[in-house]
Design goal:
Blueprint: H1 2-20, E1 26-28, E2 35-38, E3 42-49, E4 56-59, E5 68-77, E6 87-95, E7 99-108, E8 119-128, H2 132-136
Parallel strand pairs: 1-3, 2-8
Antiparallel strand pairs: 3-6, 4-7, 5-6, 7-8
Length: 145
């Protein structure tokens, strides 16, 4: 009985994550792999996190807004029913101009000044031009989104 409750909780957590990430949004979690995204397409980076400890992810260095734009971030707690259990942060971006850049994250407690981050991650991103069919249709993204 307990095993089926855990399976149901994990399934519910997966549904919540899927509902936050749009159908066209690719999701990444491995900083060792370059994120290849087409111009105008959205992508998300999922990071394990535990807000109950006071820690959370933050952008370590400003992102290159000529290449990508930050859309938003949401924390989704694991649905384990256990106090202090972690979750994940989902950071969403959009490719706005062809080019290469990186996104640097730091895992910190916001109120702790002059303390090195507990963790650091860097994701490399390559934004590529739209496919030829989309270019012919003039389907370029707007920076207004």
């Amino acid at each position: 009985m307990k095993k089926s409750a855990v399976i149901c909780a994990l399934f519910a957590s997966a549904l919540i994550v899927v509902s936050f990430v749009s159908a066209e949004e690719a999701v990444y979690s491995d900083p060792a792999k370059t994120i290849d995204v087409e111009l105008c397409k959205e992508f998300a980076i999922t990071l394990e996190s535990n807000k109950t400890t006071g820690f959370g992810w933050d952008i370590a260095t400003p992102i290159d807004e000529k290449v990508i734009r930050f859309i938003g971030c949401e924390y989704i707690a694991a649905d384990t029913g256990l106090v202090g259990s972690g979750g994940r942060e989902i950071w969403s971006f959009r490719g706005v101009c062809p080019g290469k850049t990186s996104i640097s994250f730091k895992y910190i407690r916001q109120w702790e000044k002059d303390v090195p981050p507990a963790k650091k991650l860097i994701f490399n991103v390559a934004v590529k031009e739209l496919s030829s069919n989309q270019n012919k249709q003039g389907d370029r993204c707007s920076d207004q989104r």
